Amino acid sequence: MNTEVIEILHGRTNPMIDPTLHAWGWEVPVYLFLGGVVAGLMILVPLLELRTGDKSRAFQHIPLLAAVLLSLGMGALFLDLEHPLHVYRFYMTFQPTSPMSWGSWILILVYPALVLGWAGGLADETRSWLSRLPGQGLLQQLVDLGLAQRRTVLWATVALGLGLGTYTGLLLGTMAARLQWNTAVLGPLFLVSGVSTGAALLLLLRGEKDRSHLLVRWDSMAIVVELALIAMMMIGFSTGGAGGHLAAASLLGGPFTPWFWSLVVVAGLLVPLGLNLMELRHRMAATLASPLLVLVGGLSLRFVLVAAGQASSFALLH
Amino acid sequence: MSAPTSQAPSLYAMTMDSRKCVGCSACVLACRAENAVPPGYTRDWVVKEIRGEFPVLSQVIRSERCNHCVDAPCVAVCPTGASFVDEHGTVQIDRDKCTGCKACIAACPYDARYVHTDGFVDKCTFCMHRVARGEDPACVSVCPTESLHFGDLNDPESSVSRLLAERKVTVLHPEAGTTPKLYFLS
Amino acid sequence: MSENKVWLNARRAEELGIRDGEEVVLVNQDGVRSTPVKVEVTQRIRPDCVYLVHGYGHDAKGLNFARGRGASDARLMSRVKIDPIMGGTGMNVNFVRVERTVA
Lengths: 318, 186, 103
Fold this sequence. Notes:
The complex is a heterotrimer of chains A (318), B (186) and C (103). Chain B has 186 residues and is of the alpha+beta class.
C-alpha cells in the first residue's frame, strides 16, 4: 500500500469523464437487467418443457413477452447512443474481440427463435382463436415450422439464452481498465442472475402449482450459485493486487457498500432464498414477496456494478 | 521532423520529458486550436504530482494524452470497427462508423477519450494530418521547452528512438498491459 | 474554474480541525468578513499563510460570474502600507483567521 503523501492536480475536465467516469447512465443497467431476465426466460421455459415433456399453457406467450422485454432493453440501449443515427453500423460488421458486437448479433438471432418458439408452443384453443385474425398464411407457416422443429427451436433458445445472459456480464468483465469489473466472475454471475430473475418473473406470472415448485427450486439453486459467485468475486478482488484491493474496498466500506449489501445481497438474494426454502419445506402458500425481491436485487446488482465500475479508474492507483 | 519515407512502415510514438515540462499548457491550447476541440473539452492535459509534506516537497509535471497503445483495448471492444489501428501504429477513430456506444471510453485505462458534442467519440490523433505533411503534432511543435518529441520507433535515427535509448523511460500504468507508446523521460 | 478556494496548509488544517472542502469564512484584523469559501487542504503552502485566486467573490451585480462565487482577497486587504519614497502599496499587512461556517 502506498502511504506516501501525494497531491495530484489534474488538468482534464472532460464532461462525462471527469472527475470520475460517468458515461453510462440508467440505460445500460436497465438493458443488462432486461437482457438477463429474457435470458432466464429463454433458458427456463424450454427446459421446463423438455423436462416435463408437455407444453405449458400458462407460459405459452412467454416468448412474446420476452421479445417485448428485449425490445424495451434495446430501446434503452438506443437511447444511450450518442450518435443514434449510426446504429445500423452495428450490423455492417462483426468484430470478434468486441462483446458488444457479439451481443448485437445474438440479439438478432433471438427474435426468430422467440417467434418460432411462440408459434410452436401455442395451445390448440389459442391457435384456433388466432386463426380468425388476418395474416393467417404467415402464422400457419410459422406454426408448422415451429412444430416441425420444436426440439431444435427449444435447444436453440436455450443456447441463445446462455449466450445472451453470459455476454451481458462479459460486456463489463472484459474491460480490464475498470478495476471493479476486472473479474472473470461477471459473465457467469450475470448469467445466473438472469436465470434467477427470469424464474422470478415466471413465478410472478405462475399458473399451475406443481410447475411452480420446480421453478422455486431452480430459482433457489440459482440464488445459491449467485451467492457463491459473489463470494468468489470478493475473494478474487482481495487477493488480486492493488487494483483488486480497491475493487474489494469499494464494496466493503466504500460508497457502494450499503447499496450492494442491502439491496443486492440481503434483499435480493438472502431474503428470497429464505422465503423460497420456507415455501418448499413447509409447503407455505407462495407470496409475491420473494420474486419481487429477486427482481429488485437483479436490477440493483446491475446499477451498483455499472456505477462502481465506472468510478474505479486506474488513476486511483498511484 | 522530416517527411515520412515511403519504405519501411512507421511506428509512431511520442516522448514527454517531465524534467523539461513546466506545465504551461501551450500543448493543450495548441491541440484545441489545431483540432477544433469543443470548448470545455480537451484531447491533452497537464498533470502535476506533488509528493511529500511541506516544506520537503517534490513535483513532477507532465503533459498527457492518448497513449496510442500497441494492444489498445479501445480498438478491441469497438463493435463497429470505428476504432482502429492505422498503418503507422496509431489509434484512430472513423467518425462515420462511430455510434457513440462509449464502450471504448469505459475500456481505456487512461480515460483518454471523450464524447464529442457532435455525438462521436474523439481523442488525440497524433495530428496525423500534420504528420502527413511532414510536420510535428501541434502540441510537439509549440512546446517552449521542447519537452515533447514525436517520431518513428522503426527509425533508429529519429529523436524518439535516440531519446528512448539514452534516457530513463517510464510509461503510465504499465500494469494495465496495453503497451502504451507515450513514453515519459525522467 | 467555477469558484476559488482558500488554500490551507495540511498540517495547519489538521490542527484547526478543518477538512478539505469544508466551507469557511475569513475574518481579518479589522473584523472584515469574507463571503463563504471552500477550503483546499494542500501541502503547497506555508502553515502561516492562506491563498486565494484573485478575482472571485465580488459584490457588484455587473460582475455576474464572480459575484457569489468564492471569496474576494481584495476585500480582506483593508490596510495598506505606502512606501514613503515611490508610493508603492504594500498589502502584506493583512492577517486573517479562519472560521468554520458550520460549527
